[in-house]
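Box 3.1 A note on notation
Throughout this textbook, protein chains are presented in two layers. The first layer is the amino acid sequence; the second is a token string describing backbone geometry. Keep the layers aligned when reading.
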Amino acid sequence: MKLAGDEVGRNGTGALWRGVERAGAAVPIALVVLLAAIANGLVVRVLEEWSLPGRGGLLTGIGPFELVAVAVASLMIIEARGAGAPPERFGWAEVMVGLALLVPSSAASWGVVLAYGGLASFRARGEARHAYLLLSALAVAALWSSLGVKLLAGPLTAFDAGLVGWLLEVCGTAPVVTGHVVTVAGDHRLIVLSACSSLAYAPQALVAVCAVALMGGRPHASRLLTAIAGVTLLLILANTARLAVMALSAEQYAFAHGPIGANLFDGLMVFSAIAAGWWSSRA
């Protein structure tokens, strides 16, 4: 036997569900879900970075390449919606993503971005499909930076320390490099951590350049490969130069590691990713 309360409850739930779906016709639900997952993945890193002394860059805790990739992919998805892409539905996949985001883990959030971005790309078409795949690729890069780099921290940080030692020798300083520690005259030492490794963010550079290239048009294959190689090389050189300045003295460390050095470095990386990606899309 049906009860009036049960019927009202079902009608109310159905109306709420239909209302959410109608909202999805105007707002890219998949994009909102992915941005929430990305924000959840970044919040732990941001809090950790801001807790360290001497930090305060505009993008503290957020990689410049992540910023470019997310911004470009979001614009591509919004433009695809304006061009008449089919409306997205709010279903059980979105509910499961919301529950998964309750897990207080940055890696778990990026895993959600990877999986749900793949699902969204399967549902989408055209430019939106490319954009969702870019966000999934960004998740892979973020997981590499947070998990893969830690597993290979020894050789990666030793590689950067070796580059710093080489650059200081070229500049006339005689450093002593032991593993991931660089020592110059006096008691000042630079300890290269995994978060400072150039190769930790090279995959993010690849995603950012590809994102800008796809937004600019059909990228030229050889130009795209050249742009990716160029930005990766610039990332390594710029990071090595910044670490070398930090190794000189405590005062230089405060300058290069603080807001001025961080903002200059991030600004250079953002500009290089946008310029290289746009250049690679020009036939």
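The first helix runs from residue 4 to 26. Residues 4-9, 19-24 have pLDDT under 50 and may be disordered.
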